[in-house]
Amino acid sequence: MAAEMSNDVRDFHEQLKAILPRLRIYALSLTRDRDGADDLVHDTVIRALAGRHSFQPGTNLAAWLFRIQRNEFISGLRRQRPTVPIDTEIAERLSHPAHQDSGLVMREFVSAFAKLAPTQREALLLAVLEGLPYEVIAENTGVSVGTVKSRISRGRDRLEQLLLEGDAERPLANREADATANRDPDEADNRHGP
Question: Is residue 10 predicted with pLDDT exceeding 70?
Fold first, then answer.
């Protein structure tokens, strides 16, 4: 009986050696890569030797080996495949929105606001932030209601211009011209008298 088992094992090995070139050709057709094909043949032979006891002598060894090789190839593809979370809704709830944009926008706004004429900044702060009526602002600053409206309007326009154009990309000559333009024209009107 031991001699019979030994002959079966020897016969299995001989048949396996004879099929190796065909296994390599099939592996090349699957992987389209020499190194990948060699690895696939190696994995197939290891699997076949480990599962030799499940092979039934007298059946088609080549078909059995090609099936093992095909399954090994598919398993390799599955191992290499990227995974995607199944429930993206949960993943979206776990992630946090980026806060960089709001910080950059605020920094640009503060920079542009600082470039306004002081009287325009004051009028905008009192009207927009404090919510004071024009008459109260005029009384507190000692100017006419028309001057307050003009400062707020010009301040908003200038702020919009600074935010839309940006200041970093503009040449120094333009920024110097803007500094001159930032002087409040209402101040000049008030200096000439009522």
Answer: yes
